[in-house]
Each structure stands twice: as structure tokens, then as C-alpha cells.
Specification:
This protein is α/β, with parallel strands linked by helices. It is 45% helix and 13% strand. It is built from 17 helices and twelve strands. A nine-stranded mixed sheet has the order 1-2-6-5-4-3-7-8-9, with helices on both faces.
Length: 364
């Protein structure tokens, strides 16, 4: 078997395909024999002319590959390849699986039970709460949440998984050391502590638009199903759904208001039978055989503890799973703004309420 630097070097040849690298490796020849093979033999293995010509620079490519291994060690990451024992099993099955994966964090065997949550960067409150709810319930059932670290639905799903101490995997479209903006880089470091950040791109590579669709095939390819929370008719989430369908993976979509552009894509997936409608995380978990009944399956607490004050009870009874402004709560309870805020703070400490942006609150 070739070494990791040798595999990186082969994978770095201009225009080489995943299938061509696999054919070269599976000939069983050593690295020097492959590098010095006659052009006609390389062409017979599916190498394009640019890749064959690139063999002349193999010594340089090998030095660069060895540098990548050193950079991974300095970064605190790792590198695995298609033949590694811990390479994601589902990912091996897709068309053009990545030969090399750069990791920050650790892949675990239980990550085989994984579901992707994807959606628009410009999420509505409905989309945010839905992404968080699905991620929390998936993690509570021992399922790893996979997404793309983009702002919006992706980051809400990752953040919810982290809050519940669940497993989450971020697949990115740049080198591990080139994550931007800074908030995404900060979240990536948190994810690496309890999950893993994955890229097929070497250290030093910045993201460009063409890399994102390639990234999306990994998100769908390594998971049992993809859940599209919110999306217009075009966008990265719809590309991920298309990859999932091509890979014979399950696709689920949340229905949304017909007046919302952010739900045109998800509603269209459901209408054209390209995705199964989901109204609850349990729909998805049951379909995959992953469901473990948990308290998180409930939308919110239905019965308050007995030790609530009258003001806290009044606020609790006025809250539900939809965010409500503090002024609306004051109108429904007759409390002053200061009384309502004190009660809300107490409910937050007791884990019964949650504050959203703009003095909006909902029941946990």
C-alpha cells in the first residue's frame, strides 16, 4: 500500500480523477513504478493527458505532499485516505469519493449513524428554530449531525448539537487553516473538540465558489439522509439534496409558508416527490430506524414545576413554541415590563424559557 504522502502526490496530479487514482493504487505497483510508467499504460488506467504530463513533476508533488503531512501535525489535525480503516463507509460508496480527507478532530465509529441538516444562509426564525429542534433531537438519539458550517441553517444546526453535547461534523470547502469568516473559524474549533471538521482540500487552499458543490457531495455522501430545512429553488442546500438523490440516500424537507421564498425549494422538493415531508425529527429517525424516545422529542414543557411564583406561572402559561415579544407577554398577562422580564429571567435559569433576539421569548 502506498504511503499517505504518495497518495496525496498522486491525487495532486492535474486533472486526475478519483477513479483513476483508485485504479493506479489497486494495480498493486509501488510508487516509483507508477510514477515511471509509460504514458500509454497510464492512459489505459484512465489518466488524462494533463495528469500524465504531470508525472514529470512527481518529485515536487511528493515534497509538497510531505509538507501537507507536517502542516497537519502542526495544526493538530490528521489525514486519512480512501483505504484508511476510519474512512467513512458510506462515503466510499458514492461516485467520485474523495481520495484524501483532512481532519481536525476525530471520526468515531458511531458517526456512521449520521444525518445532514442543510438550508439557506438567510434563515427565518422558523428555519432557525426548526434546525435547532431537529439537531437537538437527532443528538439525543445518538445521531451525528453533519452540515457545512455556513451561516444560517448550517451553523444553527452545529450550534444546537454543541449545546446538547452531541456529535457534529462540519464539511468545509477550504483548507482547515483557511476557514472564514472568523466566527466560522471559532465554531470550527469548538466542533473539533467534540466532533470533527473535514475537508478534501489541502492546507493553504482558500474557498472558491466551485468548491462548494464538491463539498456538498461529501455532506450527503457520508450521511444516511439529508434534511432540507429552508431553501429557495436554487442554492447549496438544493445541490446537496440533488447529490443525495443521485447517491440513493433519503431526502426529507420541511414544509413552509407558500408565501415565503425561503420555502420555495423545500415545498418544491415535497411537491415533486423528490423529498419526504417531515413535520418532526421523529419522522426522520423512525424512517431510518434511529429513533430512541427522549424528552427532547417534546416541542416544549407542557406542565410547569410546582415551585413557580404567580408571575412566573403566568408567563409560562403565555409561552409556547413560537417566539413572542415581551410586550405581547405583558398584554396577555397584565404584568409590567419589569415584572415580566424578571419572571422570564427566572424561567430561563430554570430551563423553562429561552430568549431570542429582539426581546423575543419561547418555551423550552
Amino acid at each position: 500500500m502506498l504511503t499517505t504522502p504518495q497518495l496525496i502526490a498522486l491525487n495532486s496530479l492535474p486533472g486526475i480523477t478519483s477513479a483513476a487514482v483508485r485504479r493506479l493504487v489497486e494495480t498493486g505497483e509501488d510508487f516509483q513504478t507508477i510514477a515511471n510508467a509509460p504514458p500509454e499504460d497510464l492512459a489505459a488506467e484512465g489518466l488524462r493527458s494533463a495528469a500524465i504530463a504531470g508525472m514529470a513533476n512527481m518529485e515536487l508533488l511528493l515534497r509538497q505532499a510531505e509538507s501537507q503531512v507536517q502542516r497537519a501535525a502542526q495544526f493538530g489535525g490528521g489525514i486519512i485516505h480512501f483505504w484508511s480503516d476510519d474512512y467513512p463507509a458510506r462515503l466510499r460508496q458514492i461516485y467520485a469519493p474523495p481520495i484524501i480527507l483532512y481532519l481536525h478532530g476525530t471520526l468515531l465509529p458511531e458517526d456512521d449513524r449520521s444525518i445532514a441538516i442543510v438550508g439557506t444562509r438567510a434563515a427565518t426564525m422558523y428555519g432557525r428554530l426548526s434546525a435547532e429542534k431537529y439537531a437537538e433531537e437527532f443528538c439525543a438519539s445518538g445521531v451525528t449531525v453533519v452540515s457545512g458550517l455556513a451561516r444560517g441553517i448550517d451553523q444553527y444546526a452545529h450550534a444546537a448539537a454543541l449545546r446538547t453535547s452531541g456529535r457534529t461534523i462540519a464539511v468545509i470547502a477550504s483548507g482547515l487553516d483557511e476557514i472564514s469568516p472568523s466566527l466560522s473559524a471559532q465554531m470550527a474549533r469548538k466542533i473539533a473538540e467534540r466532533g470533527v471538521v473535514i475537508s478534501e482540500y489541502p492546507f493553504g487552499v482558500k474557498a472558491i465558489p466551485a468548491y462548494f458543490p464538491q463539498r456538498n457531495r461529501i455532506i450527503s455522501g457520508m450521511t444516511a439522509a439529508t434534511v432540507v430545512v429552508e431553501s429557495d429553488q436554487k442554492g447549496g442546500a438544493m445541490i446537496t439534496a440533488s447529490f443525495a438523490l443521485d447517491q440513493s440516500r433519503e431526502v426529507f424537507a420541511l414544509p413552509g409558508p407558500i408565501s415565503s421564498p425561503k420555502s420555495r425549494g423545500t415545498n418544491g422538493l415535497i411537491r415533486t416527490d423528490r423529498a419526504r415531508l417531515t413535520q418532526s425529527p421523529v419522522d426522520v429517525l423512525d424512517a431510518l430506524g434511529y429513533h430512541i424516545p427522549t424528552a427532547a422529542a417534546n416541542n416544549f414543557s407542557s406542565e410547569p414545576p410546582a415551585d413557580l411564583t404567580l408571575f412566573e406561572r403566568a408567563i409560562f402559561d403565555s409561552l409556547d413554541g413560537e417566539p413572542r415579544h415581551v410586550d405581547t407577554l405583558c398584554e396577555s398577562t397584565g404584568l409590567t415590563s419589569s415584572e415580566a422580564l424578571v419572571a422570564l429571567l427566572a424561567l430561563e435559569f430554570k430551563g423553562l424559557a429561552r430568549q431570542m433576539a429582539g426581546k423575543m421569548f419561547l418555551r423550552r
